[in-house]
Amino acid sequence: MRTKSRLSTKGQLIIPREIRKRHGWRQGTELEVEDRGDAVVLRATSIGAATTVDDLIGFLRYRGAAKTLRQMAAGIARGARKRR
After folding, report:
1. First to last CA, the chain
2. Helix, strand, coil tally for the chain in percent (to 5)
3. Where are the chain's structural domains?
4. Are strands 40-44 and 31-35 parallel, antiparallel or unpaired?
5. Is the pTM of the predicted complex or chain greater than 0.70?
6. 3-class secondary structure, 70
7. For residues 35 and 56, is the Cβ–Cβ distance under 8 A?
8. Cα torsion angle, 37, 30, 2, 7, sign
9. 3-state SS record for the chain
10. 5-60: per-residue pLDDT in tens?
11. Helix (H) or strand (E) holding 43
């Protein structure tokens, strides 16, 4: 899809609605700008992409008895059903 847009005096560019909708870009979406010499590429940044499991250990404190894998899987399934 090709379309035209005009750069404002502040250097702002309006991305057409059809393109924003197709990519799921809403107000506040952070975009990475890559200069390829004869072209510029816009790409939505991945929030939290650099987070690892080790970064999260101890983040939520659970003080109860340890749960089995079966109990955890059942809890996840209950949560998924609630969201539907």
Report:
1. 34
2. 30, 15, 55
3. 53-83
4. antiparallel
5. no
6. helix
7. no
8. negative
9. CCCCCCECCCCCECCCHHHHHHHCCCCCCCEEEEECCCCEEEEECCCCCCCCHHHHCCCCCCCCCCCCHHHHHHHHHHHHHHHC
10. 999 999 999 999 999 999 989 988 899 999 999 999 999 987 655 677 777 777 77
11. strand 40-44
The Cα–Cα gap between 79 and 75 comes to 6
* Burial class of residue 66 in the structure, from the number of CB atoms within 10 Å of its CB (0-12 exposed, 13-18 middle, 19+ buried): exposed
- Alpha-helical segments (H) within 24-68: 53-56
The C-alpha atoms of residue 22 and residue 1 are separated, in whole angstroms, by 11
Q: How many CA atoms lie within 13 A of 71 on its CB side?
A: 4
Structure tokens at 52: 């690892």
**Type of residue at 29:** T
Q: Give the tokens for residue 3.
A: 């379309």
